[in-house]
Design goal:
With 135 residues, the protein is mostly helical. It is 76% helix and 0% strand. The chain has 6 helices and no strands. The protein has helices at residues 4-7, 14-28, 30-43, 45-57, 70-74, 80-130. Helix 3 packs antiparallel against helix 4 (45-57).
C-alpha cells in the first residue's frame, strides 16, 4: 500500500517561486519593484494593486529592498567624530532656519505696515477731497 502523496511528482510550491521572484526583485532594488507593479497594472490591474499593497505592507516603498530601513540610516554612524560634526551642523542649520524665519516675519510685518499706511493715507486724501471747504 502506497501513499498518494508519495506517488505524485514533485512540483515546486507556489511559495517557492514567489520567494525566488521576491529575492530577484530585491536584488535589483526598489525600481524593479515599481516596474513590476506598473507592469502588473498594465497587464491586469488586480495584480498591480496586489503588488502595491504588498510593497506598502512590507515597507518596500520607504526603504531599500536590501533590508536596511530608512530611519536606521539617519541615526548614529558609529563614528563619533562624524556624529559630532553632523549634530553640530544640524544645530547650526536649525539656528539659521529660525533666524531666516524671523527675518521673513519682520519682512511681512514691514510690508503689512507699509500697505496699511498707504491705505490710511489714501483714505485721508479721499476724505479731504470729499469734504467741502468751509472758507
Amino acid at each position: 500500500m502506497t501513499h498518494a502523496a508519495t506517488d505524485l511528482p514533485h512540483r515546486p510550491s507556489a511559495s517557492g517561486w514567489l520567494a525566488r521572484a521576491e529575492a530577484w526583485l530585491d536584488a535589483r532594488g526598489k525600481f524593479a519593484w515599481i516596474a513590476a507593479m506598473v507592469l502588473g497594472f498594465v497587464l491586469f490591474w488586480p495584480v498591480g494593486l496586489a503588488l502595491l499593497a504588498y510593497m506598502i505592507w512590507s515597507k518596500r516603498l520607504g526603504a531599500s529592498c536590501r533590508g536596511r530601513a530608512g530611519p536606521a540610516r539617519v541615526g548614529a554612524t558609529g563614528n563619533s567624530a562624524f556624529d559630532a560634526y553632523k549634530a553640530e551642523t544640524l544645530r547650526r542649520l536649525e539656528e539659521e532656519q529660525h533666524a531666516f524665519e524671523s527675518f521673513l516675519e519682520r519682512l511681512r510685518a514691514a510690508r503689512d505696515k507699509a500697505e496699511f499706511d498707504q491705505f490710511m493715507e489714501e483714505r485721508a486724501r479721499k476724505a479731504a477731497e470729499a469734504r467741502p471747504d468751509d472758507a
